[in-house]
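Work Package 4 report. The design task specified in the project plan requires that, given a folded chain encoded as structure tokens, an amino acid be chosen for each position. We show below one input record used in the internal validation round.
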């Protein structure tokens, strides 16, 4: 008996069954229900941390501008140095300024309208300036070259203070615990986020 070219055709079925597909969809739905409530909270926490780090970095930038004696176009090096100004009530605590203390007559080492604004900055969405450890809720952190000498003042006239804490918070929360970040600055030039 002679077997001639016998070819077996094997048909393989590589598709999903309806049951398998429904189980996968159910697992994805259950995981989504578990994960999504934490996603919004984690996103807000990341925004808070980014804002705190950026705020501290902007204060360090003003400090660096004073240390390097950065010149303003057409004005030279500001005699009063560079600084950062915060006002809790300005634009609902969303904005702050880097300024050059250029007002020749005041020499107050505090932001005034006569000074040159280097940059106006804004905190991230849903993050706001909750408080400054003083009343009124304004502070100017000024770095005067060449050392730089750090002056922290809460008002235009008067002496400086040793340190300041600036608190930022997530909008719509109780502004306690993990919903806040504190930026600490002292007159020795130490800047850090708690």
């Amino acid at each position: 008996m002679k077997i001639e070219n016998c070819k077996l055709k094997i048909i393989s079925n590589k598709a999903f069954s309806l049951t398998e597909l429904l189980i996968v969809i159910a697992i994805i739905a259950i995981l989504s229900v578990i994960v999504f409530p934490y996603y919004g909270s984690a996103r807000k926490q990341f925004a808070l941390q980014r804002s705190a780090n950026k705020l501290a970095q902007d204060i360090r930038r003003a400090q660096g501008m004073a240390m390097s004696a950065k010149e303003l176009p057409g004005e030279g090096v500001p005699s009063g140095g560079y600084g950062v100004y915060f006002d809790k009530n300005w634009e609902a605590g969303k904005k702050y300024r880097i300024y050059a203390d250029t007002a020749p007559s005041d020499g107050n080492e505090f932001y005034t309208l006569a000074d040159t604004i280097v940059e106006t900055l804004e905190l991230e969405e849903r993050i706001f300036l909750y408080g400054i450890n003083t009343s009124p809720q304004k502070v100017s952190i000024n770095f005067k070259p060449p050392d730089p000498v750090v002056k922290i003042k809460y008002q235009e006239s008067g002496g400086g203070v040793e340190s300041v804490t600036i608190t930022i918070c997530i909008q719509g929360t109780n502004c306690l615990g993990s919903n806040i970040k504190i930026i600490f600055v002292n007159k020795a030039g130490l800047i850090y986020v708690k």
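The chain has a mean pLDDT of 87. Validation will be extended to a larger panel in the next phase.
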